[in-house]
Amino acid sequence: MTAALAALSVLSLSACGALGTTGAEGDAASSAHRNDITVGLLLPDKDTARFEKFDRPLVQERVGVLTGEEGRVVYANAEGSTAKQSEQFGRLVADEVDVILVAAVDAKAIGPDVEKAKKAGIPVIAYDRLAEGPIDAYVSHDNELVGEVQGRAIVDALGGEAENSKIVMMNGEPADPNTALFKAGAMSELNGNVDIAESYDTEKWLPAVAKANMKKAIKAVGADDIAAVYAANDGMAGAVIEALDEAGVSDLPPVTGQDAELAAVQRVVAGTQYMTVYKSFLLEAGGAAEMAVARVQGRDIQFDSLAGERVDSPTQKDIPSMLVPVVALTQDTIEDTVVRDGVYDVEDICTAKYRAACASIGLTP
Which is it for the CA torsion 7, 12, 13, 18, positive or negative? Predict the structure, then answer.
């Protein structure tokens, strides 16, 4: 277990199951430390459901818990616009917030904004996506492992037929550094095992772009000749499946995903999406909040215990980092992942439309 995970084990137990839960550190910050802090939180888009549904409320909740409800989070969403995020970032710097958590729309473009924050004495923690510039820390998941898990799922699903199988790859937004990591991880499993027939980048992770590209792939490869689709996240997976349905494919090939969005989990139950990657939002968002508060309050020992790993960006080496592990969510692991962690209740998943499918895999209230 890494230092980061060891430090977060208490957080995981206290946060698991409900946003309103408080744990051992709930009364948390010592009276010697200032609690009335302001955390700026900048998220990149609303097309990825997890940011609004999980990341935002979890960060807000944890900052409140850690500061005895004296701390506050100032939040903005860039809605996929680099220019809008830069404006939001500048506003936080002008308002002299104490620390900024940012999931960059464009990792390179955010660099000058990070520089401005640094000059203003405001620490910046890159959240979910590794930003360029002099960031103080990075909190995310092992993103290359995400791709490995997805690629391995495809190879396992195809079994002995993998070598001669034609695969379509739907990668993410090129300006997001995670995209290259996801792809590298996936290729470490797919390369030499399958035939990558078509590969596409997806502007701003937009499902509509993925659907248009999938239609191109169907035309180029043939609907019945696509053995599997590597879709980098769940939004794109849903779009891929729509395109296949509209092309008349009744026996859908294995399609991967990422983020364990509710709609994706339901597709996994129904068998239309083969798998998704579950990344603990509780650990990532909670850990980011812990690091932000510790950084502002000068609790260096706790900060260092959380940021026990090191990563490099194109502009900076040895960035203190927390990398949270990931797992494959399939029909066999739904109860042991999102249900166990309280992300969704069985009732959330097994609505009337999916009740029979849930029963068939033993997922019942």
Answer: positive
What is the C-alpha separation between 65 and 55, in angstroms, rounded?
15
Report the pLDDT value the prediction gives residue 48, as an integer from 0 to 100. 85
Which residues, 6+ apart, have CB-to-CB distance to 239 below 8 Å?
207, 208, 210, 211, 214, 231
Extract the residue ranges of the chain whose pLDDT is less than 70. 1-32
Residue 113's nearest CA partner among 226, 249, 105 is: 105
Pairing mode, if any, of strands 326-329 and 137-141?
Answer: unpaired
Q: pLDDT by residue (tens digit) across 215-253?
A: 999 999 999 999 999 999 999 999 999 999 999 999 999
Determine the number of helices (DSSP H) and then strands (DSSP E) in the chain: 14, 12
CA distance 169 to 213: 10
As a whole number of angstroms, the distance between CA 61 and CA 22 comes to 9
Phi first, then psi: what are they for 29, rounded to 5°? -70, 140
Determine the pLDDT at residue 10: 44
DSSP state of 225: G
Q: Which pTM value belongs to this model?
A: 0.80
Instruction: Tell me the DSSP string of 140-181.
Output: EE-HHHHHHHHHHHHHHHHGGGGGG-EEEEE---TTSHHHHH
